# Entry
Amino acid sequence: MHILSSVLTLPEAVSTPVGAEVYRGLTSMPKQLSPWLFYDETGSRLFEEITRLPEYYLTRTERGIFARYADEMLESAGHRRVTIIELGAGTASKTGLLLRAAVGRQGAVDYVPIDVSETALTAAQEHIEAGIPGVSVAPRVADYTKGIDEIPTAGQRRMVLYIGSSIGNFEPPDAVKVLREVRRRLAPGDLLLLGVDHVKDRRILWRAYNDAAGVTEAFNKNMLVRVNRELGAGFNPRLFQHRAIWNAVHSRMEIYLKSLIGQRVSIPALDLEAEFAEGESIHTENSYKFTAESIAAIVERAGFSITQSWTDEREWFGVYLAARL
Ligand code: AVJ
# Structure
């Protein structure tokens, strides 16, 4: 009886978020692992490094748009004061520009950064409170949309920031679902400020995910390092190759880890042996790129209406303001 139950019982690690995701992903065909697995401490640090790479134009282009148009973005919120809520805030490095504009306009502003990483939120709180008087920071550790619940706004209008093209990780139908979840937690007239990367010359896109210094490669492979550490797996990151390719049909960059040889990798905590054929890949990320039309379709299917948008001179990145219907 004891033997039977131990045979039938799944290992405990399968019911942890990381264990469940790795089990699901490596027993799927084709193999895949979700991009949220990138963001352990090392991965978050590597992502910060990516945002400063010469090839990774996204962060600095979006920051440039905020630098130029933050006042206009706040003006569009109308006469009512706003509370600013940020989904997946991380270290909130671009948000300061909007917070300054809000303080300039309404004297003070409540800022609620939401993120799964407590470390990132603490850093965000410290540098914002030290650098921008008038901002009250009330961070929430939560899986983004859930954190919007029960934010007291005392009659203020909520402005939800979802920037950095984070929404680009979702398949379009899932992106609609995420925005519907946001909508469900808002009142009519509340606002969504969405930052998304635009479709552009494929060579520019390719370089942004295949940087010369190899930081994106390290970021991608760190997922294996994390699985080794947290589940005792035996991945040798050097036996996998970073691949990032443009898929024009789906309008997305696709990121993979491709096995250089036929190999079997054990993941003891999951009681799992993952078999790789030579050249077989794990799909680790999609990064969708949008046009004004494709993002409007998603936002509108989620029950928002775009009222204004801003872009840079090259139209490489777009910031869209939408009102909850
Ligand atoms: C954080 C999802 C916006 O898709 O550009 C950067 C993540 N992956 N380099 C992106 C990422 C590889 C990034 N997002």
Summary: The mean pLDDT is 93. The longest strand covers residues 240-247.
